[in-house]
Amino acid sequence: MVVASKERIRDTRPVNPRVKSFKDTFRRLKKNKSALVGFYVLAFFFVVSIFGAIDANYGLTGISSNATNLTAKLESPSAAHWFGTDHLGRDIFIRILHGMYITLGVGFAATFLAGLVGVPLGILAGYYGGWFDTIVMRLMDVLLAFPGILLALAIVSVLGGSTINVTIAIAIGAIPQFARIVRGSTLTTKKLEYVDAIRALGARDVKIIFQHILPNIMSPIIVNTTLFIATAILTAAGLSFLGLGVQPPTPEWGAMLNDGRNYMYQAGHITLFPGMMIVIVVLAFNLFGDGLRDALDPKMRK
Amino acid sequence: MTEKPLLKIDNLKQYFPIKGGFLGRTVNHVKAVDDISFAIGKGETVSVVGESGCGKSTTGRAILRLDEPTAGKVEFEGKDVLGMSAKEMRRMRSEMQIIFQDPYASLNPRKTVRQTLNEAMEIQNVVPKKERNARIVELMETVGLQKHQIDRFPHEFSGGQRQRVGIARALSVNPKLIICDEAVSALDVSIQAQVLNLLKRLQREMGLTYLFIAHDLGVVRHISDRIIVMYLGKIVEMGETKSIFENPQHPYTKALLSAIPVPNPKKKAERIFLRGDVPSPIDPPTGCRFHTRCPFATDKCRTEVPLLEEKDEIYKDKHSVACHYALDIQQGKHKPKYNMTDVRKNLDEEGMDNKSKEKQLENA
Questions:
Q1: Residues B331 and B259 in one domain
Q2: Strand B25-40, strand B319-321: pairing
Q3: Is Nucleotide-binding given among the entry's keywords (chain B) (predicted)?
Q4: Closest Cα of chain B to A35: distance in Å?
Q5: Across chain A, which distance is largest between two alpha carbons, in Å?
Q6: Which of A63, B57, B69, B200 falls 20 to 30 Å from A266 in CA-CA distance?
Q7: CA B327, CA B296: separation in Å to the nearest integer?
Q8: Which residues of A touch B169 (CB under 8 A)?
Q9: A14: nearest CA partner in chain B
Q10: Whole-angstrom Cα distance, residue A216 to residue A191?
């Protein structure tokens, strides 16, 4: 009997809705097979990219991604060179491994930067409305009128091609997306009665925004972030392919595609492997993001 | 009413702009509250009744400056509320609190009861930090919640319990006036009674003043000392509960009161039906706003705005009405153009299609 009563006490313990909703979300996510595949692929790549980053910068394996070997150029995949070699005899597998953190890093950093600017802009525009809202959102409309890659292209050609500039260029193109989504959610949330209640208690706007609005609009932000990383990676690769992004000999995947372009007919593997990696990473992010969106959608909750 | 009112409202107006056109210019206004004045004495319960969209809730929100009023004056203990700076207003807010209609929307789903109450006290700094926990327990007991429920989240409570949390939050800053915006409308009837009794008890114990916004006339009769009847942004009648219920003077109030169901199937209540719908508050009728639906309306009603006055000498200081013919109607001098109780029947016949009319003829 004593044990039973203990059990009951444990059951009535309050569940933090944050923990609970996280658990619920994860449970729903697990039911979605494709999202789970995306998640595992991403987790795997993440670990591999950390290893690649360390190896590229501190040389654990002693193999350099830029070591040329003109006697072994354009070799097909073999036991010695898993993904073959390129026109300068560099090992493509090693290059992909060493470039992974750059590709993922640009994706994450650009999205993070965009969120850092877009989320506050969206919240302030939605919360205060008025002329601030009008000006900010019209500016966002202007940015949104350019196709993402074109805008990034223009910015990079002004700033010059480098990893940091590519990141900034992509981030600027993504700000409107964040601002719009966040503004919409803020408008919905600020009309709820608990926001009125806290205003009636005399809370300052900062408190209302950070403690009552932001925590309640996190799910659309998270979903948008995940989905945008894929787009950012794609745009970064596209810029590098055009020669405007990360500069050679950095083993960025888009730049590698560009390198292999001239040898596509003799040695297709030079373009095949970096291209395939880009596809896999982008697909994984999209699958995971879609799954996350479904899992966080309150209408799907049962 | 006591000598000096706790809350005094003068010519309050709340117009909401309608934006439209190319540059989002203001093309028109929704006149949600249009020039109303009233006062509430300390310890009183004043109810505001009226149908949906008549401006009851807007009035409450305007008093608290949740929406900034367009014009008018709100005085709380003689202090001009609308003229206060943001800083003064923040301090002032501990004096006036609000309880909302929807207990599911009025609590932040991510905060426990303790966090919610603690936050309220922290904002107003009414209780020293060390004593806050004790005060939270006390508040919970006051509103009839258990001590062990303190660390629960809103989703773990029922609607009635959440409403109690909302009441506790309002009480936590020791207010003098509480605006109950449809505070019991969303609750079950049995829970309604519990919450109403709780509100009454709190009033007795703490000397609270309520501005009770409601549409349920049974609830209003139960709780209020005085009643304000609103129609389309204006006060049409205001008076003591007893006098309003027993001797409604405005045709609209009469219609409203006749809609209360009578708990006796044998007694046939004389139901007054109004024609048509409430006109749009964007372009309200001229003169008396009720003239489009009033069977007593004359040309005077269509042109002259009736003032809220004490018409009947017997109810001096107790009952005022905004109707040109309030006395004449009462004394039977001014007859309606059509029988109000039969409107439903007339409408039914008008709306009847030809087929059913033929059927009826055949049967005859």
A1: yes
A2: unpaired
A3: yes
A4: 27
A5: 80
A6: A63
A7: 12
A8: 197, 201
A9: B152
A10: 13
Side-chain half-sphere exposure of A205, counting CA atoms within 13 A: 8
Amino acid at B268: K
Q: Which residues contact A291 (CB under 8 A, 6 or more apart)?
A: A29, A32, A34, A35, A36, A38, A39
Place of tokens 């090693």: A94
Q: Looking at residue A235, which CATH number applies to its domain?
A: 1.10.3720.10
Whether B198 and B184 have beta carbons less than 8 Å apart is answered as: no
Asked if A19 reaches chain B (Cβ–Cβ under 8 Å), the answer is no
Under an 8 A CB cutoff, do B108 and A16 touch? no
Q: What is the pTM of this model?
A: 0.80
Tokens representing residue A23 in the block? 């658990």
pLDDT tens for A173-212 read 999 999 999 999 999 999 888 999 999 998 899 999 998 9
Whether B224 contacts chain A with CB within 8 A: no
Please provide the distance, in angstroms rounded to a whole number, between the alpha carbons at the two ends of chain A.
34
B53: alpha, beta or left, given left = phi > 0 and alpha = psi -120 to 50?
A: left
Whether residue B211 sits in one domain with residue B247: no
ipTM of the complex: 0.82
- Best to test chain B binding among A10, A194, A210 (most B CBs inside 10 Å): A194
pLDDT of residue B229: 93
Q: What is the pLDDT of residues B132-146, one digit of tens each?
A: 999 999 999 888 898
First to last CA, chain B: 61
Do residues B167 and B242 share a domain?
Answer: no
Q: Which residue has the tokens 């040389």?
A: A59
